[in-house]
Amino acid sequence: MCRFMKISRSSYYDWLYRPLSKRARQDIDLTNRIIPIFKEGRNNYGARRIKHKLFLQNIVVSQRRISRLMRLAGLTCKTKRKFKATSDSNHKKPVALNILSRNFNVSNPNRSWVGDITYIKTNQGWLYLAVVIDLYSRQVVGWSMSNRINAELVDNAILMAIWKRKPEKDLVWHTDRGRQYASDSHRKILKDHKIIQSMSRKGDCWDNAVSESFFHTLKTELTNHYNFENREEAKKIIFEYIEVFYNRKILILLIGLSLFLKKVVTTMVQDG
Description:
Layout: H1 2-5, H2 9-17, H3 22-40, H4 47-56, H5 63-72, E1 112-122, E2 125-134, E3 140-146, H6 151-165, E4 172-175, H7 184-192, E5 196-199, H8 209-221, H9 231-270
Parallel strand pairs: 1-4, 4-5
Antiparallel strand pairs: 1-2, 2-3
Helix pairs in contact: 4-5
């Protein structure tokens, strides 16, 4: 082999027994940290999201280096797919003003909630999912699934959120202009619990960007990669994703970010 490569035997043995460089050792350590983060994200995290996770562990590394190490480790993200909306705003029901007005950053829980509906394909037919998201934590605080896209679907989701969180009056509840959210039954629930209704402008998905973002994550991380035999199978897997994976992931992320910011502030105070 040395003859073929035109190198001396001494050079070969020097290379064979030479200790790994500092950079190589760091790459091995980083790879060992990247792999569990990638698996935790169900093989969906790319270099950008892994960089953020490492940052929360006080590890600062470039996105380009993470991409290289992921490639060498054979870590490939799942393919993403597009999805379409399900809202139907062509109705004569009352439409609420856009009170939220894209104010997605709130300082307290249970002050602003957003919601929307999406659909999941199964071999038995469509399964519809309605969610309620707290803008403070970005957690899904209420959800409902059904084979029918009607007012009862969204009513059950908001009632779950009310039961779990017991919000004070004047909570802002923002959705699109779909007929389900404009229904008499839904508006009665909001009135009974003194919740203020807010609706997006017609045809403007950016007014409800947080809900759209959650559904994008749900589909690219989960439902696009399953062939559900029936609705019950889909319900069980989506329930596990929301309550066991997504909500806990968001909570851990918030705690990690809070601890990191606290450490930064403490360091700044100590340094004067």
